[in-house]
Amino acid sequence: MSADGAWKTTINSPMGVQEGTLNITTKGDTFTGKMEGRMGGQDISGKVDGDTLTWSAAITTPFPMTLEFTVTVSGDAMTGSVKAGSFGSSPLTGVRA
Quick count: other Cβ atoms within 10 Å of Cβ 5? Predict the structure, then answer.
């Protein structure tokens, strides 16, 4: 199943639940897209390995750090984690919008 399309995502972070949207377009073993949440939006690009997508995103709010995402797509569901530097990993879930 393709990861292409719009997703509603939820991250249970140390700073509380973060909800947003993720739009993905795959092309072979790469993808491009856009993440949007209450802190704003950011263009992203990453790798596709079967059902697994990986990417990183640099943020500046509430403080500068790089987030590392790993998610697996199964049908209309997405599960994975977000590594936030010294804050460790937080679970990420998503459903196709």
Answer: 15
> For residues 55 and 62, which has the higher predicted lDDT (pLDDT)?
55
Instruction: Calculate the average pLDDT of the chain.
Output: 93
- Helix, strand, or coil (residue 64): coil
* 0.90 exceeded by pTM: yes
Residues 62-74, mean pLDDT to the nearest whole number: 92
Under 8 Å CB-to-CB from 44, ≥6 apart: which residues? 32, 33, 34, 35, 55, 57
Name 50's Cβ contacts closer than 8 Å, sequence gap at least 6: none
The full set of domains in the chain, from first to last, is 5-96 (2.40.128.120)
What span, in angstroms and rounded, lies between the C-alpha atoms of 46 and 34?
11
| Cβ 24 vs Cβ 7: under 8 Å | yes
Mean predicted confidence (pLDDT) in 32-56: 94
- C-alpha span between 51 and 56 (Å, rounded): 17
